[in-house]
Every structure is written in structure tokens, then in C-alpha cells.
Design brief:
With 118 residues, this protein is mostly helical. The protein folds into 2 domains: 33 residues, no CATH class; 50 residues, no CATH class. It has 5 helices and no strands. The radius of gyration is 20 Å and the shape is extended.
Amino acid sequence: MNRQADTDELLRGEWAQTQVERALGELGIQVIHAHSAQAKGRIERSFKTHQDRLIKAMRLAGIKTLEEANKFLESYWPRHNGRFMKVPRAPKDLHRPVPKTMNLGGILCLKANLTINN
């Protein structure tokens, strides 16, 4: 948990949500937390790959600036994805279209409840 529940959340009997959990809830996406090593394994392997291979590759390429890193990544990601990506079972795009009435800028932002005292 990143923060303690505020008074309003406690009164409603809710847990403190992270900004990501709040935004996903507003988008109608259910968050399913991974509480086991098996559930976390795949993403942890991915993080280790990026923390290990990517950093070493950037050092070998002599990357010193953010601009150099961005240019390097343009060639690195296609090679990386070619090695590690998996072909989907069905090529159809199953993403739901964003409703025209949905304000993504108002959802995908930081929000906080502030209390002003005298």
C-alpha cells in the first residue's frame, strides 16, 4: 500500500487506492493483484531482462545522454521484441474503443483530496 486511507475512505470502509487503481476504476477496469511468486514471475523476469540486458547494452554502446538513449532504444526494442514477444492466438484487436464522451485527460492524471483549514 502506497499511502494510508484518508478519513472519507475509512468512513466508507474502503482501502486507500493508488493513482493507478483510481484511474483504472474510473475506466471500468478491474484490478487483480498478484499475491504469489508464480503470478509475479513473468513480469519480474521482464524487469530483470530490462535491468540487466538493457543497461549492459547501453553501457557497451557508450550511451551518455538521454537523447543517445532514446536513439539507441529505437533500434533496441525491435530486436528485443523479435526475441521475446509471443504471437497472439488471434490477430483481431480486442481493445474496446474509447467512448467519445470519456475525458481521458481527466482520468489519467494525478488527483488528490485536500482539506483547507483556517
